[in-house]
Records
---
Amino acid sequence: GALRDAQRLAGNPDACTWPSPLPMVRYDHVFVGRDVRVRSIEVLRTKRTAVASDHLPVLMEFELGGATC
């Protein structure tokens, strides 16, 4: 109950990550605590990421204690 779904917080809850060549399922998640502010989150879909793994990478920009990471 203490963790929140970062993709939902960023307004992008349906971004699919698997399988990478033709993603149809949101298989990968990022969960954050209440002290983390999600600035943005995206699934990186390029030719390179599609062949690097069977899952697409999830990139999140966030703030923690006033610092942007």
---
Amino acid sequence: VVVNEAMAANLPVLVSKQCGCYPDLVHPGLNGFVFDPENLSELTALFTKLAHSELDLKAMCTRSSEIVSNYTPERAAEAVVDTIRTATA
């Protein structure tokens, strides 16, 4: 939920490839980046890129907010109900 909260706060994100949400929430280069947590040089390079590059951080922040807006409690509940209906059909 931490990634969702950061995105809802209009922030770009750096998310570990071991985090289950990354395929759905992180669009590399658009709202953040994904990294291998066992590769320190990769993470360092991403922090450096965010701190010193000409990335459009404002656009990344906006995109984070747009992406996460699709992940509401209501939609999560609908997915659970649909799964139960499918499993019991």
